[in-house]
Amino acid sequence: MSLRGVARSATTKQSPQFIKGCVVVLTQLFIILAASCTPAPTKEPVPTLTATAAIPTFSPTIIPLPTSTNTTIPPTLTSTSTPIPCDPHTADFCITDGHFILQRPIHPPANDSVDRTYPFGSTANGARDPHRGVEFINGLGIPVYAAGDGVVLFAGPDDVAIYSPWTIFYGNLVVIQHENDLFTLYAHLSKIDVRTGDEIKAGEQIGEVGRSGVAIGSHLHFEVRRGDAADYFSMVNPELWLIPSKPDFGALSISIQDTSSAFQSASLTLQQYSADGEVLGLNYLETYYPPLALGEENLGIGDLSAGRYRITFIHNGVFYERWVEVQSGKLTEVVIIVK
Questions:
Q1: Host H or E run for residue 282
Q2: Which of 51, 82, 93, 139 has a 20 to 30 Å separation from 222 between CA atoms?
């Protein structure tokens, strides 16, 4: 018998139990081999919070929201803003610094107050010539002082008609030229202490009170002129240029005008009132003689106590009233339009 025959004979003679056992063994072997071929699963780590982990926050950089170009933000007023100027034509009155740059030509204890009976621009109710200056009533020999720094333009008797249409009108006269074409005149002196060409300081004595020339009684006639010292119509009201004689004094300028801005003549009453309505003072005033109303006002008065004032007058049968305020060291400007 050949080997092939023996093998075939052996195979065909295997029992069913043997075959079942082989199947079981082969199955287990397959599972083992399959497991060895499959890679072991990796264990995913559970994420943990670390000390550097943080909840995201917004960046400190702020992106501005777009603004509308139609929205206008009003400017904020600062201390450098320029105030709107006061206009006395539309306001009841305006408070200004004025131009109080001249010292008084008479010093205390002598009389340094302007005579109210014959003020600038007045004719003393038609009794005298139109007054181109103011008067300081004092006795003979009272010292007269320069009202400001300057140069003596003239010193001597006016025996030649230079500063007025007549000779020997001012008598012994001193004329001082100041800055900005401003001139001061000191007339009717009894003595002159300076010479033409002298440089003068404010407060320096230049002469003494007298009654030379055309003068009624002993007094100082004081004028302020602008532009041309020899122009008899270049004068301005000295009361609006002199420093008030007391710290609590101010000044008042009044313009009575028609609708075409032409000056109108009037007789005014000026009353000062206390806070409770009591009348503290009373002045009767006249507007300037018309040919002398050449400046910005046609009535001016200085050395008024600070306070509240009432201006009243009648023009062409119409009653006018204006309440104003005077402040220390200031000029109150008033414009009243009449019909």
A1: strand 279-286
A2: 93
Domain C-terminal end among 222, 243, 264: 243
Based on the domain organization, do 118 and 220 belong to the same domain?
yes
Question: For 257-303, how does the pLDDT look when each residue is reduced to its tens digit (9 = 90+)?
Answer: 999 999 999 999 999 999 999 999 999 999 999 999 999 999 999 99
In angstroms, the CA 223 to CA 220 distance is 10
Say if residues 209 and 138 touch (Cβ distance below 8 Å): yes
Local structure of 240: helix, strand or coil: helix
The pLDDT tens digits of the residues spanning 78-94 come to 434 556 789 999 999 99
Which two structure tokens, joined as six digits, stand for 322?
Answer: 């204006």
Q: Would strands 279-286 and 235-236 be described as parallel, antiparallel, or unpaired?
A: unpaired
- In-domain check, residue 66: no
Which of 30, 47, 46 is closest to 38 using CA atoms? Answer: 30
Give the separation between CA 253 and CA 271, rounded to whole angstroms.
15
Q: What range defines the domain where residue 219 resides?
A: 100-243
Report yes or no on 35 lying in a domain.
no
Bond preceding residue 109 cis, omega within 30 of 0: yes
Last residue in a domain, options 209, 243, 277: 243
Weakly modelled stretches of the chain, pLDDT under 50? 1-16, 18-19, 21-27, 29-80
Q: Tokens at residue 269, please?
A: 């009453």
Cβ atoms of 315 and 256 within 8 Å: the answer is: yes
Residues 192 and 302 reside in one and the same domain: no
251/238 Cα distance (integer angstroms):
11
Look up the CATH number of the domain holding residue 277. 2.60.40.2190
Residues 210 and 309 in one domain: no
Task: Report how far residue 109's alpha carbon sits from residue 334's, in angstroms, rounded to the nearest whole number.
Answer: 33
- 252 shares a domain with 303: yes
Whether pTM > 0.85 for this model: the answer is: no
Residues in the chain: 339
- Residue 280 phi/psi, 5-degree rounding, is -100, -25
